[in-house]
Amino acid sequence: MASRLELLLPWCRLRFPVSGTSQTRRALGRPRLSQVRLSSTEAAAQRAPGREEADSKVGTRKKTFSEVQAERLEQAQRTVLINCPAKISEKKFLTYLSHHGKINSHYFYESYGTYAVVEFSEKDSIASLQDVTRTPGIEEECAVPFKSRLFTLTLKNPSTQAAHQAPVHCHKQSTILINDLVQKLCSADSVSNQLYTLMDEYQLTEENTKLRFLVCSLIQDIACAYFPECTVKPFGSSVNTFGKLGCDLDMFLDLDEIGRSPTRAKTGPFYMEYQMKRVPSERIASQRILSVIGDCIDNFGAGCVGVQKILNARCPLVRFSHQPAGFQCDLTTNNRVAMRSSELLYIYGSLDSRVRALVFSVRCWARVHGITSTIPGPWITNFSLTIMALFFLQKRTPPIIPTLDQLKDLADAEDKHIIEGYDCTFASNLNKIKPTENTETLDVLLSDFFEYFGNFAFNKNSINIRKGKEQNKPEPSPLYIQNPFERALNISKNVQEKQLDRFVALARECAWILQQEDKGHSSLSNSQPWGLAALLLPSVASNCVKGKKKRGQASERIKSLLDSLKINNSESLVNNGGKRTFSNQTQ
Ligand code: CTP
Ligand code: MG
Fold it and tell me: Which InterPro entries does the annotation name (predicted)?
């Protein structure tokens, strides 16, 4: 008899024959490339050393998204941010702060000065610290007397106190330079390990995650002046497992607790309700709230600079930089669906380590080649790219991750979420989702990702992670990715044909590069970037431009060229000063 889990998980039981291309793919190749599909344990054994650390976090990741959020938000309320001299005795610093209560953890980092993030064991310690903290003297510019948890600590006698002091150890808050990354990738022993190395370098650290929750908590302190029951929660890449060091901090001002009315008393002759201002729509309410909170952040928020109120956007927001934290913040309200999509991505990112490794690499690749941008515009966004990668992983045989509909089938009563009329129901308990039996290596997945999207029928098909199937496009946007919850929306509506064409051309070029390396046809010497490192080089993009490959047409040409390569690769491949091109593509 099938177990209950199996019945709940039809997607796990699906078995399709392994595709011929993938099976035969790793026949030749560099010795460092894995040549056969590995079992899960073998694959695990071949991963980069950093992976063990990430895998041991599985225990932590098994917590639900809401549990992690609640835990970290509570932790953030017991935490303070202190600007301090770089040369300071860590021991004396901790002893000084310990007078206010037990310290659970602390770390230093650099951003426009040296900062310490100090987590107390009790919230009361902060009040005790605030009691002995003075407001800035009048000899300085006039200060707005809003007392926050952002402090400055100075030395009483800087010349003597700092003289023989070494600077404190600072935790990294940003990614390494791309050239250093490329070098590091080259010393990995397989493409798979290159992807894990990139992820280890790029992913948010524990410290940076704490800082993100702390910034939410500091903004919550400001909003609480008007709405004492509100919470400010991070969403988007800061918490969906796909965040890169330096990514923006998306914050959600949650006022739901205020709106939640106690059940009407059945006894007694009266009803009592608040008198409140009424506005024509929820959107207008959000705009007004954000406008006031935006002004408060601008006027009272220590460290918050460049505050912009972008209230006419589809989702109104307040944007600013948190200078001490060193990242950009976007504050929204009435954005519950985005919170749910962050949870969905969190689930996908926590299911299998290959998911995050692939998404990080594809996101990095796209950024390096200007496919994505930090400026809003007609580009593919990181969010769209992530959904594309998830869709690709749903299409593997067997699938690496379940479809959204399959996650919905696993949902319990408490997972049911209908938000603004949209069904956002899916299982939140990771333990209910049976791990995939797919054992493909990231070598294969990366190469196939590029091949898959290099040949995807974007002109007629849409991407749908709810069904895990391509569907006919309901409207002619160049790229159509169905919003998983607000199903009538295309999350990539902004993308223009030209940008999509660049993505496709680069994907084809990269698929080709990886396939050639795999077949041992690489014309590059071993000292030159290979695998993922080669895909990050600017020459990849310039080769695309040189080749002037047109979609459709080019696809056929590449296929026939690849066929001819099989017959006589030495004639078709030209090593043009390290830049590889097909001889008849450069005209
Ligand atoms: N979002 C959405 N629909 C969109 C754009 C965004 O639902 N069309 C939601 C997603 O949950 C997304 C979050 O809003 O994760 C934040 O959006 P954004 O900051 O653009 O993307 P991130 O995933 O945070 O990626 P990045 O690192 O580029 O900020
Ligand atoms: Mg974001």
Answer: MTPAP-like_central (IPR054708), NT_sf (IPR043519), PAP_assoc (IPR002058), RL (IPR041252)
Would you say 215 and 322 are in contact if contact means Cβ atoms under 8 Å apart?
Answer: yes
DSSP one-letter code for 463: B
How many whole angstroms from 236 Cα to the centroid of ligand 1? 5
What was the pLDDT predicted at 59?
Answer: 46
Query: What's the farthest any 2 CA atoms get from each other in the chain?
Result: 94
Q: Identify whether the C-beta of residue 148 lies closer than 8 Å to the C-beta of residue 126.
A: no
Cα–Cα distance, 74 to 76 (Å, whole number): 5
Q: Per-residue pLDDT for 8 more than 50?
A: no
What are the start-end ranges of the H helices in 397-537? 404-409, 442-454, 497-518, 531-535
Q: Is the pLDDT of residue 575 over 70?
A: no
Q: What is the pLDDT of residue 27?
A: 30
Listing DSSP states for 196-230 in one string gives: HHHHHHHBPPHHHHHHHHHHHHHHHHHHTTT-TT-
As a whole number of Å, the end-to-end CA separation of the chain is 64
The token pair at 47 is: 């991963």
- Nearest atom of ligand 1 to the alpha carbon of 337: 7
Alpha helices of 352-441 — where are they, by DSSP H? 353-368, 382-394, 404-409
Q: Average of pLDDT values for 172-191?
A: 94
**Ligand 1 surroundings by CB, under 6 angstroms:** 235-237, 240, 247-248, 250, 338, 341-342, 381-383, 491
Residue 480 and residue 462 in contact, taking contact as beta carbons nearer than 8 Å: yes
The pLDDT of residue 525 is 54
Decide if pLDDT at 586 tops 50: no
- Amino acid (1-letter code) at residue 456: F
The rounded distance, in Å, linking the Cα atoms of 438 and 400 is 6
Phi then psi for residue 232, to 5 deg, are -115, 120
Token reading at 147: 């007392």
Which residue type sits at 435?
P
Under DSSP, the state recorded for 551 is: T
- Of the options 3.20.20.70, 3.40.190.10, 3.30.420.110, 1.10.1410.10, the CATH number for the domain spanning 178-189+353-401+436-533: 1.10.1410.10
CA of 315 to the centre of ligand 2 (A): 13
> Are 578 and 526 in contact, with CB atoms under 8 Å apart?
no
Residues across the chain: 587
**What does the pLDDT read at residue 521?**
59
* Structure letter (DSSP) for residue 240: S
* Alpha carbon distances (Å) from 279 to 276, 310, 522: 10, 19, 65
Q: Which ligand is nearest to the CA of 336?
A: 1
Look up residue 554 and give its two tokens. Answer: 């080019």
Residue 64, pLDDT score: 95
Name the CATH superfamily housing domain 78-161.
Answer: RRM (RNA recognition motif) domain (3.30.70.330)
Q: Say which range, 142-151, 280-289, 440-449, 472-481, has the weakest mean pLDDT.
A: 142-151
Q: What is the pLDDT of the chain when averaged over all its residues?
A: 84
Ion ligand 2: residue ranges with CB closer than 5 A:
236-237, 248, 250
pTM over 0.70: yes
The residues with which 552 forms a beta bridge, in sequence order, are none
Q: Rounded to an integer, what distance in angstroms lies between the CA atom of residue 267 and that of residue 253?
A: 35
Supply the DSSP symbol for 486.
S
